[in-house]
Amino acid sequence: MSGSRPSKCVTIQRTLDGRLQVAGKKGFPHVIYARLWRWPDLHKNELKHINACQFAFDLKCDLVCVNPYHYERVISPAPPSRLVKDEFVHDLIQIEGEGQHHSERKVGGWDSGYGCNSTLPTVTHYRSKNYWEPPSMLQHNTMEQRIPSPIQRGLASPDHWCSIQYFELDHKVGETFKVLSKYREVTVDGYVNPSEPNRFCLGQLSNVHRTEASEKARLHVGQGVMLTLEGQGDVLLENKSQHPVFVQSQYLDKQSRRKPGDAVHKFFPGTHLKVFDLQECYETIMAKASIAQSAARAQALAVSGNNPEAAQAAVQIVGPKAINPENGQLTRDGMVQINAAANIGVDDLRRMCILRLSFVKGWGPDYHRINIKYTPCWIEIQLHRALQLLDDVLRRTQMYEAGQDH
Questions:
Q1: Nearest CA-CA partner of 200 in 215, 213, 185
Q2: Exposed/middle/buried for residue 131 (C-beta within 10 Å: 0-12, 13-18, 19+)
């Protein structure tokens, strides 16, 4: 099998967590075989399956194709150099294990992240595109055309630029920490000094429900992380501790070509990256709010029996597959997608204005902890400028009155 001519899928049974263990390390099966036969230095998320592959890893079938010639290697282009400070990129990183510490050179390893012997944010995953997407999300957004951006028209900035809440598992610990807008940087660390206006010390916080796992993880927070406000609302994050931190950021999801909320991004010690873009967040909120309004209108037309107009409205949102080409009527699948779009709620939009970060321990698809509430210690950062703009959009689009607040 050389790849010079078409070949069939070579499959194995998918494991419960989707990974295989080889020589004491876990990895994705298609990546293991691709490293063995084609690219020894392959990172785990640089593969994209070819169209002919019926059991590609991304398709989530019970069987997984491990034919190395059914995958293509795709490497992310280099981002603007200002996103990464070269002095924070290390060849050697500290890997934290259960009760042991050792150094490991991170080259094509099993676990990709930011700051690992590269100035590139690693593309964590590529997904096949099986949905119709309009040429521009904002093309049909008449609301965008008639409402000037609050960023441009000088909406007054809030007194505090962020609020930080600290959790251990699913328990909130201590009071919410608010950062005044005059402080452009804030540090969250594990020390016990009384918190300063722009320094949140977690070490001083007590919790009668604290577990042994939380106690151990708190010992490794150390110098923690520093958040930096840029412009009116962009945010950069620097990991100043000696251990990885794990970040949920829709901005990084987009940079990594992941579905929003589908990825957790690992920051190695010393990594300094942008994690939030205010203008991008605002434009996405406007687009989603407009889609929700259009979908609600299509729903109303369908319920009233006006199928032709409902189908026409559905095409603008879902695409041509929303209607039956034979009779021009709205299809069942089209109606399902319309209902999903109409159910975009305030909580969905609000999540775009929030960052979540766990110390030492990760969660998500690559870890046994499926939710951040299973990690021993973590923080939630609410970005006030973004929430202010969201409130402005909601008032103007009347989503509150339309019953979109779930």
A1: 185
A2: exposed
For residue 205, how many C-alpha atoms fall within 13 Å in the half-sphere facing its CB? 26
Instruction: Tell me the pTM.
Output: 0.62
Beta strand 265-267 with 245-248 is antiparallel
Cβ-in-10-Å burial (0-12, 13-18, 19+) of 372 comes to: buried
At 223-248, the pLDDT tens digits run 999 999 998 899 999 999 999 999 99
Backbone φ/ψ region at 360: left (φ over 0), alpha (ψ -120 to 50), beta: left
Instruction: Identify the DSSP state of 229.
Output: E
Rounded to the nearest 10 degrees, the angle between the axes of helix 307-317 and helix 332-342 is 60
Output DSSP code: residue 90: B
Contact 378, 159 (CB under 8 A): no
Give buried/exposed letters for 57-96 (b at 16+ CB in 10 A, else e): bbeeeeebbbbbbbbeeeebeeeeeebbbeebbbeebbbe
Token pair listed for 358 = 């766990």
> Can you read off the two tokens belonging to residue 383?
């970005």
- Number of residues assigned to the chain: 406
Q: Could you tell me the CA-to-CA distances from 102 to 234, 259, 313 in Å, in that order?
A: 35, 34, 58
Strand ranges for 81-221 from DSSP E: 92-96, 101-105, 160-168, 171-180, 185-189, 199-201
* Residue whose token pair is 């992310």: 76
Cα dihedral angle (307, 309, 313, 319), rounded to 10 degrees? 60
β-bridge mates for residue 228, sequence order: 185, 236
Cβ-proximal residues to 341 (8 Å cutoff; 6+ apart), any chain: 291, 292, 294, 295, 317, 318
**Run of H or E residues at 204:** none
pLDDT tens-digit readout, 258-275: 888 778 999 999 999 999
Nearest CA among 312, 269, 265 for reference residue 124: 265
pLDDT at 398: 61
Task: Assess contact for 276 and 249: CB atoms under 8 A.
Answer: yes
